[in-house]
Amino acid sequence: MSSKANKVNKALDEAIPLQEPIKLHESMRYSLLAGGKRVRPILCLAACALVGGDEANAIPIACAIEMIHTMSLTHDDLPCMDNDDLRRGQPTNHKVFGEKTTILASGALLTLAFELVASKLTDVSPDRVLRVIVELGSTIGSKGLVAGQIADLSSEGKEISLDELEYIHVHKTSKLLEAAIVCGAIIGGGDEIEVEKLRKYGRCIGLLFQVVDDILDVTKSSDELGKTAGKDLVSDKATYPRLMGLEKAKDMATEFLDKAMEELSHFDAARAAPLLHLAEYIAYRQN
Ligand code: GRG
């Protein structure tokens, strides 16, 4: 994971040199290079390799996906959305550069992502590049991330059902993880069956990622407060532990992990090992 993350970090650094307009590029670089686990780009590279592709071909897509992820975080943190002061342990983009620059830098990251995919995949057939562009567009827009965000915003302060919570998480979290894997597999030359198996794996680990996030929210805040009830159980934010209890949420995480593993059983075990370990990493991570 760390060797893949290093390759992606280097490519991200090179993709956005510090140039005029300086403040805009500083703002883009600030959030993009501020750390982050790089889970999505790593999944993208691993999926490309699993179907027999050259990992180097997937680097531009891995970078594009991290740019999209980062711009969704900078938007999410804005005062008109979550109004957060900290992200990845540092002041949020708008706290450092101001809201106007953050909105523009986020737009520039989003458009640069598509520019990278359309211009840097010269060794890949145009048909596959086009499929990646369609996959990314539908993942982000009004049927994807944006739909999840608007559903999340309109659920604030309301009791919501498990189905509504799942809708939010599928759109806000799973879809981009799924797209990272699907795009890696498309660029790696995967056939339809392989791409669809990996899509299902992606959907499972996307939901796994969110359930674990919700569980960590409870367990970490319990540790921090030295109490048995975490902040999540007392805040009004809907989460899996809040809707179904901590133990059932843990069972659900195990089910998603098992389902993800099942989708990988179609592939050669040695080649699938990195994605199998990534699923375990997502399930057992501590942050
Ligand atoms: C305007 C096109 C457009 C999109 C923005 C604001 C928005 C729409 C969507 C919000 C999406 C959002 C904040 C989803 C949360 C996803 C999530 C689980 C983030 C945490 O991911 P990690 O743990 O974070 O991988 P790091 O920092 O490690 O990268």
Give helix % range. over 70%
Could you state the order of secondary-structure elements as H and E? HHHHEEHHHHHHHHHH
By helix and strand content, what is the structural category? mainly alpha
Percent range for β-strand residues = under 5%
Bound molecules: geranylgeranyl diphosphate
- For the terminal residues, how far apart are their CA atoms? 16 Å
Contiguous helical run count: 14
CATH superfamily: Farnesyl Diphosphate Synthase
Strand count, sense and barrel status of the largest sheet are:
2 strands, antiparallel
Overall geometric form:
globular
CATH topology name: Farnesyl Diphosphate Synthase
Total number of beta strands:
2
Q: Strands of the biggest beta sheet: in what spatial order? A: 1-2
Rounded mean pLDDT score: 93
User: Class in CATH?
Assistant: Mainly Alpha
